[in-house]
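Q: Got a minute? One more chain.
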Amino acid sequence: MKAAAILLAITFAAVIASAQKCTLPDLSATSAETLSLGIAVAAVTTPRLEQEEKVPPDSVFVDVHPVIRKKTEPVYPKLAMAAGIEGKVTVRFWVDTRGKVHDVKVVQSDNEVLNQATLDAASKFEFDPATVRGKPVSMWVTVPFKFKIADKTDGADIRNLPVGLQGAIGCITNILSGEDATKCKTAITPDAYAVVGQRYIPLADAIERRGTVKGLPDERGWELSMVRTVMDDQAQLATLLLRTVQKKSGAYRFHTVVVVRSGEGDWKIRHWHTGQ
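A: Always. Here it is, folded:
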């Protein structure tokens, strides 16, 4: 009996001694083992993500409205410029408390070809946010964008074009104004054609029939008021958008002329699209 009591005491002492040698895990550690324990210390060592803002209501009363800090102009779509398309696109988006733009949407558009350029530009805007009692708040904003081709020709713009393109523009104006265009025959490719209204006509025939329904318009008494040029990256093809205006009435017409660069470096007219 006494021997059993002594053995029990020795065993208990051994357990206590073993427990004193144990060490708890270091809670300040950021090892995978520590994280796997689900210990809250991970929240201290991990950066806290910024809470996303809620979409504001449609109408918010504020003391100060958002003010544009950074404005991005839309890039005029090449297709729209070549076709002479102008118009206005209105977008709506909300500005958060940091002045960032969210949820840009088109609410009104004169032409869909202008929409994407508007959305891209609006999404890059930055604002000083609206405030209420000095504190920033989120709110919806409506912004109109206008696309307009310049009314007047910039002479410097033409002079900065390659000499061959200047010559092509000179031929175009000579043909329209009824002046001697014989020297321009070499500036037209053999397969060149014209689109007059809805008719496809060989360009040489359209020139000969100027002033008729099957020819280019006769623009004697008109003047060139605008030229815009869109050139491909290899500088081998250019689209010229020309606007001509009748001096007396102020009526205007757009011409889209595609010119290509030959192996000799000359620019030749391949396609001519005009309204009637």
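A: The radius of gyration is 37 Å.
Q: Perfect, thanks.
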